[in-house]
Amino acid sequence: MTVQRPTTTPLDRIQQNWLAASERRLLTWLCRRMPAWVTPDRLTSTGMVGALMIFVGYVASNVGPGWLLLAILGYAVQWFGDSMDGSLARYRHVERPSYGYFIDHSCDGLATLLILAGIGLSPFVTMDVAMITLAGYLLLSIHAYLSARVIGEFKLSYLSAGPTELRLVLIALTVMMMVLGAGPGLFGQWSGFDIFVGTAGAILILLFVRQTLVTGQRLAKKDSGRP
Fold this sequence. Notes:
two-stranded parallel sheet; 7 helices
């Protein structure tokens, strides 16, 4: 099997989520005020600490719902580290395209595992449902990484939502966990939280199938020389 060397050509980042413009202004404002000792690598590590906080908060909610506050705080820490590392590198013109792409998205995968495994180990959502949603998220991530390689476009949002909007949805879900508590729902063994998380997973899987078909048709036309 022949493996081609990955290209380091700058990617066309496609970000069309609702909060993109406001978030970009906030990140630029923060970049201007970051002290010199704050580096992109340290911010990446901060994001992973946030993901670990989320995991611990969900798992510890088996002891008491107050631990969910740790998960909510973790989402803020994870957003700060994950959103700021690349932004600061670009702001300071210290990008390392291959290294940054590899480490950042490797950490994204691990962080997503920690978050959804934590949700599955909480008393609110079953692990089966959480893992289906994890599979959907990782499938869509695989599509984004493949598209970056074959067409040079890195899509950061779907259905006008990106990682920041997803974090806000998960924070709202966590608040509802604190308010409503765990226990049998209206759907037998499936709680309302199971239904919500499972529906989100199904949407992610359907998006992966749709985007695969669309990108496949686009590549077929390109390779055949059709307009």
